[in-house]
Design goal:
Chain lengths: 503, 468
């Protein structure tokens, strides 16, 4: 798996202050200039704090086999069924570097604007733990594969979180690292069960947090370990910043310690068994020579392409990066930036969207609206992933075509969608036909209906003539009911107005 | 038959003068008779006999696999052997039965060799009798009158060799004749995808030419190796050997390896550091010895490792961890790596000045009697015994010990040749020439066995054990 160091800048706090009068500043490393005439003496208890957050992200590489052994990687395999001799650290086994993992690390480095180190080294990091059979982990501490990158991201700001502003975060380094096993603690039997297939979760984050007054040196940092979801990561960091500020304002001090996040209580707590600082006794990994990467200029003549990795070739094979995709979506489909974020943040949604676009005549804005509101809404309600959707892109495209050609009204379309979601195998056209949802196209019939409704409700007609603005809507509503919602309200309104003006 | 060269035995097998099963049984008979020497930890009679049967079939059909088909071999007990207990002579791995063969073991078996058993060693190969890593192939060879070959680092796969010092370990070959060692080396050498430190260049089995003219050779004699502790007998033999080369027309010159005196300490720092790391996996969880304590994982680790390792091993682990601590790393480990580079460069410089091989003693003296041996502690003994051999491991060079003569006490003495990196063939060619000149007496096994029997009658030695 790979690991990235990401250093963020001061966090912007959302929500109301919780009793403390401290404020944070948001913004980058350069502070906003305060014009003199608005400066005032800080009141007692009111200090400006800046928080610094560094993330250590453990991400598992998607590959068929592991980083150093030939073992397969397979989701939800039975415990200890995918363990090679090397994974079990049998004596005499040696690590062999997996090419695909190196390529993945290079791709990640390039996508994050890093400098790729043409030479990187492997080290052993020693500690004893049940899920670490060798007593050490192979990592890249001295010279990792990629350094000095950055990531530009968007964040929703504004009163209604509707505006997107861009920020940049530094990526200190990316290193290749061996995954550990997985421990399951059985407190009832005082046992720990170890599964050496691989570690839990595809993403684990450790957050390093400190606070300080701007202009002063950075504060002591704490490390909050093993956060598994973005949501809890945010909560943990928020809590930890608050905790540190409170502690310091009360005259206390922050210990350089490791903490874990208690999900139930929503707070960080010190980790019991991390007493004293760990000395990992780093040592070069003697069984792995330095990792050498090449590019077009440095590639040795006649080099076997199976044996070498060419950074330039990998760069060419990089897929379109998200920021480029988002920009393209905004330009091509005239959608709002926040829409482009949503489309990309949901797995499979962009592909779904693009498939609908391909198959429908309806204009892109309509597609965007249907996909992001109706479709996504239904998914979220039932906690489904895009790939689990009962409604296919083709089906939605067909539905939108019907809407576009005014064969059905928009409320009818919503009904059809609901039916589609039941996944009974019917096409939109079939549903429309079965449920008689077609828009009444017959102008004459519609005019007759309007006429008869007006005749049947003279009081309402009077209200309209008196100038009651809501009365016309009642009439429209009555006509719609009479048509079993199969008429376009705009058309009804036009007919009624015409007929009313004639009387 | 048991004293012949590999090729002679192989020819005899081909011609049907002897069968693999007969050969196998002769060996086992000798093994039984010499059991008191405790040379074997595990004797694999069933396995070997089965392999012998298969070999016999092949010979009958005229389909022998090569020079090693039907030849009995023994493998040191720190090589992983599938289905056969592998202990490294340590309590820690008592009862450990690996599920795979070391690459070198597999290569020998693929050639039809018969595995007689797993031989004894000092616990995890850490005693003065040697480490594969500082001379434990050449040392015993010198003491026992055998040829001991240490190939270039990176030539032979370490996959399955339970490591002591990964950056210095090399599988070593012990035979009676240089030709035999060359045959085996030819089979073992070559890139192994399972060992990333093996070189990629293709290697083919080599035949050693019979050198007749040494006049184009340049032999280097490192002057720093003339130490006061060198026994007069060894010194004399070393001098005679140099004279021999000179008299046959070779150029023999004094050379200098200036950093020799730092070698032992440097070796000690790097060796213990890597050892501490390599021993970290022995925690009783996955394989091997596990103590009875189950109060907590840490308590289990501690007790398992105290019970599983002897004090030499534990001492080295503690030293190694000390050198790897953050506050010591720069001053010890990094410094030692730098000194190692200097030592390696010493050899490079000498070889660049036109020297083909270096000629040195292998050991300070003949084998020291047991009672004498145990007077000094392990560290001192290691330092003394490895003095001529371990710099070679640090530089990754090939070296070979050739038996030269018997001492006044009747014990063998050997001399060492050190070659350029990956010039193993040239090294062995020169060694073979030297071997022919020296004509070291072949061990007369029958006499030896008779001697042993008479010793056995003496009750004292019934409980004799070389295992520390």
């Amino acid at each position: 798996c790979a690991l990235a160091w990401v250093y963020g800048v001061s966090r912007h706090r959302r929500g109301a202050p919780t009793g403390s009068t401290s404020n944070w500043i948001r913004g980058q490393s350069s502070l906003a200039q305060q014009p003199l005439h608005t400066a005032r003496k800080p009141r007692k208890g009111e200090h400006k704090w800046a928080a610094v957050v560094g993330l250590e992200i453990h991400a598992q590489i998607s590959s068929n086999s592991k980083l150093f052994s030939g073992s397969q990687v397979c989701f939800a395999a039975p415990p200890n069924s995918l363990v090679s001799f090397f994974d079990a650290s049998l004596p005499g086994t040696l690590p062999v570097l997996n090419r695909r993992c190196v390529e993945a690390a290079v791709m990640t480095g390039l996508a994050l604007n890093c400098h790729i180190n043409k030479k990187s080294l492997f080290d052993r990091k020693h500690y004893f733990y049940a899920d670490l059979p060798a007593g050490y982990q192979i990592t890249q501490q001295r010279l990792p594969i990629a350094v000095n990158g950055s990531l530009t991201y968007g964040i929703c700001v504004g009163k209604r979180q509707s505006q997107v502003t861009t920020r940049t975060v530094r990526v200190k380094q990316i290193q290749l690292e061996q995954d550990s096993g997985k421990s399951l603690h059985d407190d009832l039997r005082s046992q720990t069960l170890v599964d050496l297939n691989r570690a839990e979760g595809q993403l684990r984050v450790d957050a390093n947090v400190s606070v300080h007054h701007p202009g002063e040196p950075l504060g002591v940092r704490t490390e909050v370990k093993n956060l598994n979801s973005i949501r809890f990561l945010a909560k943990a960091i928020d809590y930890e910043i608050q905790r540190q500020i409170k502690e310091l304002e009360n005259g206390g001090e922050i210990l350089n310690e490791t903490r874990s996040f208690d999900y139930k209580l929503g707070c960080t707590v010190p980790m019991r068994d991390k007493e004293g600082k760990q000395d990992y006794r780093f040592m070069p990994e003697p069984n792995l020579p330095p990792l050498l990467l090449y590019d077009a200029t440095s590639l040795p003549a006649g080099a076997d392409s199976q044996q070498v990795i060419n950074i330039d070739q990998i760069r060419e094979r990089l897929p379109e990066l998200p920021s480029v995709t988002r920009e393209r979506l905004v330009q091509q489909y005239e959608m709002l930036p926040e829409h482009s974020f949503t489309l990309l943040n949901e797995v499979g949604l962009l592909e779904f969207f693009q498939n609908v676009i391909k198959e429908t005549r309806a204009e892109p804005k309509k597609v965007t609206s249907w996909v992001l509101n109706t479709f996504l809404g239904y998914l979220k309600q039932q906690n489904l992933a895009v790939r689990e959707s009962p409604v296919t892109a083709s089906a939605l495209a067909e539905l939108l075509d019907l809407l576009d050609s005014k064969a059905i009204s928009s409320s009818a379309a919503k009904q059809v969608f609901e039916e589609l979601w039941k996944h009974e195998g019917k096409t939109p056209t079939q549903i429309v036909s079965e449920k008689k949802l077609e828009l009444m196209q017959d102008q004459e019939a519609l005019e007759q209906l309007c006429h008869s409704v007006m005749q049947g409700h003279p009081q309402v007609v009077m209200d309209v003539k008196k100038g009651n603005p809501r009365a016309i809507n009642r009439l429209i509503g009555l006509v719609r009911k009479a048509t079993l919602s199969r008429a376009d309200p705009a058309v009804i309104k036009a007919i009624l107005e015409k007929q009313l003006s004639c009387h | 038959m048991l004293g012949r060269t590999l090729r002679e035995v192989s020819a005899a097998l081909k011609q049907g003068q002897i069968t693999p099963i007969e050969l196998c049984q002769k060996c086992f008979s000798l093994i039984k008779k010499t059991k008191f020497l405790n040379a074997y930890i595990t004797v694999t009679e069933e396995v070997a006999l089965k392999q012998a049967e298969e070999s016999e079939k092949r010979y009958k059909n005229g389909q022998s696999l090569g020079d090693l088909d039907g030849i009995p071999i023994a493998v040191k007990d720190n090589f992983s052997t599938s289905g056969i207990e592998t202990t490294c002579a340590s309590n820690m791995l008592k009862g450990y039965v690996p599920p795979y063969n070391a690459t070198v073991v597999q290569k020998l078996l693929d050639q039809g060799a018969l595995l007689m058993g797993k031989t004894n060693l000092d616990e995890f190969a850490m005693g003065a009798l040697g480490s594969d890593t500082g001379g434990s192939t050449r040392n015993p060879a010198a003491h026992c009158g055998l040829v001991g070959v240490k190939p270039s680092y990176g030539l032979v796969s370490r996959h399955g060799l339970i490591p002591l010092v990964n950056s210095m370990d090399v599988p070593g070959i012990l035979t009676r004749y240089v030709d035999d060692a060359a045959i085996v080396l030819g089979i073992l050498a070559g890139h192994d995808p399972k060992d990333s430190t093996t070189v990629q260049d293709p290697v083919k089995p080599f035949m050693l030419p019979s050198l007749t003219d040494v006049s184009k050779l340049c032999i280097g004699i490192p002057k720093e190796y003339l130490v006061p502790e060198l026994s007069s007998e060894v010194r004399s033999l070393w001098s005679k050997a140099a004279d021999l080369f000179e008299s046959e027309g070779a150029k023999v010159i004094d050379v200098s390896l200036p950093h020799t005196s730092y070698s032992i300490v440097c070796y000690h720092v790097l060796c213990t550091s890597e050892v501490a790391s390599n021993m970290a996996r022995f925690d009783g969880l996955e394989y091997g010895h596990r103590c009875d304590i189950d109060v907590s994982t840490e308590a289990m680790y501690a007790a398992t490792r105290r019970e599983g390792f002897n004090d030499v091993v534990r001492g080295r682990i503690l030293s190694g961890n000390f050198f790897l601590l953050k506050e010591n790393y720069e001053n010890y480990f990094i410094k030692a790596q730098k000194v190692r580079r200097l030592i390696a460069n010493d050899f490079v410089n000498v070889f660049n000045s036109g020297v083909d091989v270096l000629l040195t003693p292998t050991t300070l003296s003949e084998a020291v009697p047991y009672l004498e041996f145990i007077k000094e502690d392990n560290r001192t003994r290691s330092a003394q015994d490895d003095i001529f051999t371990q710099a070679v491991n640090m530089a990754g060079l090939p070296a070979v010990s050739i038996p030269v003569a018997l001492s006044d006490q009747g014990l063998p003495i050997g001399l060492q040749f050190i070659g350029r990196a990956f010039c193993d063939q040239q090294l062995l060619t020169i060694a073979k020439w030297f071997e022919k000149q020296v004509q070291f007496p072949v061990t007369q096994l029958q006499e030896f066995v008779d001697d042993c029997s008479s010793i056995l009658e003496n009750e004292k030695l019934a409980s004799f054990s070389l295992k520390q």
